[in-house]
Amino acid sequence: MDKYVGLNIKINPYTNRVLGVIKEKYGLRDKGDALNKFVELFGDEFIDREIKEEVLKDVIKSCDYHIKKKGFKSKTISELRKSIEEK
Predict the structure, then answer these.
(1) What is the arithmetic mean of pLDDT over 40-68?
(2) What is the pTM of this model?
(3) What residues contact 37, with CB distance under 8 A and at least 6 apart?
(4) For the chain, what is the domain count?
């Protein structure tokens, strides 16, 4: 079962009409389903659906390298805030 997130959004009249057309074209229940359909159709142009294994391996390798080089240092919130504000 898919998880859904509640969302209250303001859209312009054109977007409303587009979602209405998608809703009717695909026989969907509501404009929320139409928005999901739109993302299903065009979302891949902007972001991959799942993280590719090679990307995940690169991130893990990079993190391991950084930890070996610099060590793992945890900071408190105040220490982190201070180091950010100093820059």
Answers:
(1) 89
(2) 0.55
(3) 22, 26, 28
(4) 2
26 with 45: CB under 8 angstroms? no
Cα–Cα distance, 63 to 66 (Å, whole number): 5
Say yes or no: 25 and 45 in one domain.
yes
Q: Above 70 in pLDDT, residue 1?
A: no
59 in the same domain as 38: no
Is residue 35 within 8 Å of 19, Cβ to Cβ? Answer: yes
Identify whether residues 61 and 26 lie together within a single domain. Answer: no
Domain of 65, in residue numbers: 53-85
- Is residue 87's pLDDT more than 80? no
Per-residue pLDDT, averaged over 4-31, amounts to 95
State the amino acid at position 47 in one-letter form. I
Picking from 21, 17, 64, 67, the residue whose alpha carbon sits closest to that of residue 41 is 21
What's the rounded Cα separation, in Å, for the pair 31 and 24? 9
Task: Phi first, then psi: give them for residue 43, nearest 5 degrees.
Answer: -65, -30
